[in-house]
Design goal:
Layout lengths: L2 H19 L39 E2 L12 E9 L7 H20 L6 E4 L5 E3 L4 H11 L5 E6 L1 H13 L3 E5 L8 H4 L10 H15 L6 E5 L3 H16 L7 E4 L10 H10 L3 E5 L2 H13 L6 E4 L15 H7 E5 L9 H12 L6 H8 L2 H12 L5 H8 L20 H4 L5 E5 L7 E3 L7 H5 L10
Parallel strand pairs: 2-3, 2-4, 2-5, 5-6, 7-8, 7-9, 9-10, 10-11
Antiparallel strand pairs: 1-2, 11-12, 12-13
Length: 462
């Protein structure tokens, strides 16, 4: 492998270390927003300073006010977070994800709370699991005696590992993952409140778009993390490829995350050997960037990349050598539009980010949007005068009428997953003028393949 590639790879490794430390302005999260001036516009928060209703409570909810309460007369609902916040492969994303969720509830509290209740995520209830399954289980076990629900559980196999603990404790969770299995109550016991199109539908839509841009019969390769993130997106890509007449990938590469000791050398070498027209990347941003850079520096520059949502990080735009390459080759998929989108949810998010001095980041968008189902759940529980975890779990299993402020279509969790699953995806390209480095080249799109797919079971089960 050329010396130029080795030098370039070392620069990208340095980027990875910087990105892990600066997923936003700093690598620590705050416990509660204190300067937000308005609640999210779609939340219909009720301003009150009176004592909270005498609702039934058990774990994670108390009539006593929150620490450093925004509204002294309100009771307190505690939410937990299990994320990747320091040195795992998704730490550059986990930090802004978590900050967005803190800011979301801070905005609710600033506007008076939810009918007599404030909602907070404290440092004590934020667990760094490093994108590791065993540590995610430890996090769920640690938080079980403390919180009403999880505002975030990062990672598909990690959240799967913690499911027995969630079931045992009636703990509802908003997942930082788009695995297709979350749509099925026999998989998640109705406890996981997923948002956006699953990975496999995202890949179907992305492959269909790329087929409209590339020569007929193009070749493709798959580079994916092990587990349900790589497996689910990869399954969707294969489903689409078969219907598009592309056949199997010319190479299928299992990529271990760099932060777990993985190395991209083998992937680069294999891809140089087969030289596919399209590389479907289901990795983190570090691995995607290192592989793209390695191929380019070794003389292969005619490829295109289709990247799953988590392959992108706005910090990539800080690498002046890398940006022109990514502008030329990278197409990303995402369940919702970018930072600059004009939906009500995006406007509310930007207001909270400005108030809390957050930098634009796609993961902040995701962290914000993932809170709307929990908001609807808590509103229903408060209306029923029952904030026990058993009631939250019962309500979650048949939750209806979730309003995402136009960031996503309104949705329910009731009925057949084939009827209520979200199938739309945005297609993104690198844009140096965009706040988070990406701009949509399509509106929310549903390919014919995704529209007609009979969704009777998860696309991938590892």
């Amino acid at each position: 492998m050329s010396r130029r590639w080795l030098v370039f790879a070392s620069l990208l490794m340095a980027f990875a270390l910087v990105a892990a430390a600066c997923g936003d302005d700093d690598a620590t999260t705050t416990t509660q927003a204190t300067t937000t001036t308005a609640a999210p516009g779609t939340t219909a928060a009720t301003t009150t300073t009176e004592a909270p209703p005498q609702a039934a409570v058990d774990v994670g909810a108390t009539p006593a006010p929150c620490p450093d309460a925004e509204n002294e007369g309100n009771g307190c609902i505690y939410l937990g977070v299990i994320s990747d916040l320091t040195d795992g492969p998704f730490a550059p994303l986990g930090v802004p994800l978590t900050q967005a969720q803190e800011d979301f509830w801070g905005a609710i509290n600033e506007a008076g709370g939810l009918d007599g209740w404030d909602v907070i995520i404290t440092a004590e209830n934020t667990f760094d699991a490093h994108y590791d399954g065993a540590q995610t289980v430890e996090g769920a076990t640690t938080l079980a005696p403390r919180v009403a629900a999880l505002a975030q559980s990062l990672g598909t196999p990690q959240t799967q590992a913690a499911l027995p603990t969630l079931v045992e404790n009636n703990m509802v969770a908003a997942p930082a993952t788009w695995w297709s299995g979350w749509a099925f109550s026999d998989v998640d016991s109705g406890l996981v409140l997923e948002s956006g199109a699953p990975y496999c539908f995202e890949a179907m839509n992305g492959m269909t778009y790329m087929a409209s841009q590339l020569p007929e019969g193009f070749t493709w390769a798959l580079v994916a993390f092990p587990g349900d993130y790589g497996g689910d997106y990869g399954a969707g890509a294969k489903i689409a490829a078969a219907q598009l007449g592309l056949g199997d990938p010319v190479a299928e590469i299992l990529q271990i995350p760099v932060s777990f000791g993985g190395d991209v050398t083998e992937a680069v070498t294999t891809l140089l050997g087969v030289q596919p027209t399209l590389i479907v990347m289901v990795t983190g941003p570090t691995e995607m960037a290192q592989i793209a850079g390695g191929l380019f520096q070794n003389g292969f520059s005619t490829f295109q990349i289709l990247g799953a949502g988590p392959t992108w990080n706005v910090a990539l735009m800080q690498n002046a050598e890398l940006v022109p390459l990514l502008q030329a080759v990278y197409t990303g998929t995402a369940p919702w539009s970018n930072w600059d989108s004009d939906s009500q949810a995006h406007a509310d998010m930007r207001a909270a980010a400005d108030a809390n001095e957050r930098s634009p980041h796609g993961a902040y968008v995701a962290g914000w949007v993932w809170q709307y189902p929990l908001l609807t759940l808590l509103q229903e529980a408060i209306a029923s005068n029952d904030l026990t975890r058993a009631n939250l779990a019962a309500l979650a299993a048949s939750l209806e009428g979730i309003d995402y402020g136009d960031a996503l279509p309104n949705r329910d969790y009731t009925g057949d997953p084939n009827d209520h699953v979200v199938r739309s995806t945005y297609i993104m390209k690198v844009d140096t003028e965009s706040s988070d480095g990406l701009s949509p080249v399509t509106d929310a799109t549903i390919s014919e393949i995704a529209a007609n797919y009979e969704f009777t079971s998860p696309c991938f089960v590892g």
